[in-house]
Amino acid sequence: MNTTPLEALRQELQRLNLTGFVVPHADEYQNEYVPPCAERLAWLTGFTGSAGTAIVLTQEAAIFVDGRYILQVGDQVDKNDFTFNHSGEHPPATWLECHVRPSNRIGYDPKLHTPRDLERFQAACDRAEAQLIPCSPNPIDQVWTERPAVLMGVIQPHLLEFSGKSSQEKREELAKNFREEGIDAAIISAPDSIAWLLNIRGSDVSHTPLPLCQAILYSTGRVVVFVDAQKVSPGLSSHLGPDISLESPEAFEVALQHLGKHGQHVICDPAKTNSWIFSTLIQHGAHLTNGDDPCAMPKACKNAIEIQGAYAAHERDGVAVCQFLAWLAREIPKGRVTELQASAYLDESRQKQPRWEDASFPTISGAGANGAIVHYHSTPETNKTLEPGMLYLVDSGGQYLDGTTDITRTVAIGDPTDEHRDRYTRVLQGHLALAMAKFPEGTTGSQLDALARAPLWAMGLDYDHGTGHGVGSFLGVHEGPQRISKSASHVALKPGMIVSNEPGFYKTGAFGIRIENLVVVKREEMSKDVSRLFLGFDTLTVVPFDRTLIVVDLLSTQELDWVNAYHLRVWKCLESKVDTDTRVWLEKATQPLS
Predict the structure, then answer these.
(1) Mapping DSSP to helix (H, G, I), strand (E, B) and coil, where does residue 22 land?
(2) Residues 53, 22: contact at Cβ < 8 Å?
(3) Domains with residue ranges and CATH for the chain
(4) H or E stretch including 413?
(5) 561: which residues sit within 8 A by CB, 6+ positions away?
(6) What is the model's pTM?
């Protein structure tokens, strides 16, 4: 009889004299999406979502996921092996405190946890009088017999015509701030920050052009990148310039020790940098300052060239999505379209667009009850045919050289029910409330979140995910630090930030509704009497909503005018760019509501 991953891990823990082990969905770079060799949580549990944690003890084990994955974890994980927990209601550290005993030894991989994350587990173990033990190497890696090899994606230059600002200019601005603050160096461990800072892109992670590497930025503006030589493309060194040197990954630890031995003042982000880096610096005498990743905010606030690229990328993306929706309208009556066929056609439509490089994430194509699974991915076993009476939810996006897209549309298959139309319209009203919002400078996304939920709250309804996430520029489809969610945030929205606007509603076992556009934060022209700077959103996405699902009588005059103006904009933007069949569909889909 074959040993299961859970059994193999427990045997290894016993050998190491450990009572338990914490398994986050993370890699040493703290990415949301990780390469196959770092999918330890999936190997152990079968859960393939982008966020989650498992805790394995000698006699019991638990897995923790947020609201997006509550249905998915039940489908993928054996309930006889793991108990399922909503991480917002029953956090992993709280569960651990209740289930460990005095003198228990709980292991963790310090390269997979941030100091901020470990604080919660350490406090839980302290209260339970248990020990939290760093492990190197990771016990899972010792028993994962068919672990995929580390990827060696080649790093390519990201041209100035797309980045809008040279690496030298970015580095000089950050270095100047370091000198003013008495900082000698910063550890840049987030690959998207390194990609932004050096104007490079990689291919180590599916659908996100990340170069997996570490870097140190010095107050002189010099950068040392620790990366495998196999990843270095011809001509990359000349693109980077003389102030950026490349060293092997093995040299990173030595460089950290050198910073410590020379008493350097180093800034690290405790929310994005792994604990091993912190420990190495502290053990060797560095003066450590906890601070935000210095690249995060300037990366989030897109410059004029990046914003121009985002509009252009969304126009091409709109062509692809409208072509798909027009095809869907023609094929649905034949009764033979499945989730996988629809997803494949949409992906092919995008691939034909100029400057397309990849999908920005695997397409979510959910018909009927599958649409209620927030991050559902169709498989041959779950693949449904799109049938009359269903709602079909499709969430997808593209990676283009000049921008990253993310769009969700919900489509009625045949005649929608009154319940479908009511719920869709209320989700739409929440979407519109956010799209039309005007707010003073300094407002955070958590302060705006309720605007998108209010129409659902009025009916006693809600959704269990954030309303909006930041989006990169040919980088991560999920990008911080900005977001729109119930969770408290200290990050104010600023001009140039791109965020999603995606309220939803999900009826388990029946249907899912989500309406998502990307928007860019802009300055608002207010009356002369207003002394403060006000901001608002401009919508980047150009794809119509499903008119058959909108209850016009529920819309206010302002809401109706916005939808009609948006549809007119979509028509004018795309009518000359789409093929004849799509144009016929688009003209009908963008007719004014009345």
Answers:
(1) strand
(2) yes
(3) 5-143 (3.40.350.10), 156-296 (3.40.350.10), 301-589 (3.90.230.10)
(4) none
(5) none
(6) 0.94
Nearest to 316 by CA among 265, 288, 346, 352: 352
Look at the block and give the residue holding tokens 């672990």: 147
Q: What is the DSSP letter of 458?
A: T
Contact (CB, 8 A) for 554 and 428: no
Distant-in-sequence, close-in-space partners of 175: CB < 8 Å, separation ≥ 6: 217, 218, 219, 220, 221
d(CA 355, CA 105): 52
Give CA separation, 284 vs 187, 262, 263, in Å: 15, 9, 8
pLDDT in tens, 118-175: 999 999 999 999 999 999 999 999 999 999 999 899 999 999 999 999 999 999 999 9
**What is the β-pairing status of strands 223-226 and 244-247?**
parallel
Residue showing tokens 């600023």: 494
First to last CA, the chain: 66
Write the DSSP symbol of residue 473.
Answer: S
Q: In the chain, count of helices (H) and strands (E)?
A: 19, 28
Cβ pair 425, 555 in contact under 8 A: yes
Q: What DSSP element (H or E) covers 157?
A: strand 156-157
Secondary structure in 3-state letters for 291-334:
CCCCCHHHHHCCCHHHHHHHHHHHHHHHHHHHHHHHHHHHHHHH
Query: Rounded distance, CA 393 to CA 407, Å?
Result: 11
Q: Are 590 and 544 in contact (CB under 8 A)?
A: yes
∠ at Cα 435 (432, 440), nearest 5°? Answer: 130
Q: Is 558 exposed, middle or buried (0-12, 13-18, 19+ CB in 10 A)?
A: exposed
Token pair recorded at residue 66: 């947020």
E strand intervals along 437-540: 438-440, 468-470, 479-484, 498-501, 504-507, 511-514, 517-524, 534-539
Nearest Cα to 495, choosing from 479, 519, 478, 530? 519
pLDDT (0 to 100) of residue 432? 98
What are the respective helix, strand and coil percentages of the chain, to the nearest 5? 40, 20, 40
Confirm if 65 and 52 have CB atoms less than 8 A apart: yes
Q: Could you tell me the two tokens for 522?
A: 């802009």
Q: Residue 511, SS3? A: strand
- Asked if 366 and 373 touch (Cβ cutoff 8 Å), the reply is yes
Segment (H or E) for 395: strand 391-396
Alpha-carbon radius of gyration of the chain: 25
If one counts every other C-beta atom within 10 angstroms of the C-beta of residue 28, the result is: 19
pLDDT tens column, 49-94: 889 999 999 999 999 998 888 889 998 999 999 999 999 889 999 9
Spatial separation of the C-alpha atoms in residues 252 and 277, rounded to whole Å? 10
CB burial of 212-242 (b: ≥16 within 10 Å; e: otherwise) equals bbbbbbbbebebbbbbbeebbeeebeebbee
Query: Which one-letter DSSP state was computed for residue 427?
Result: H
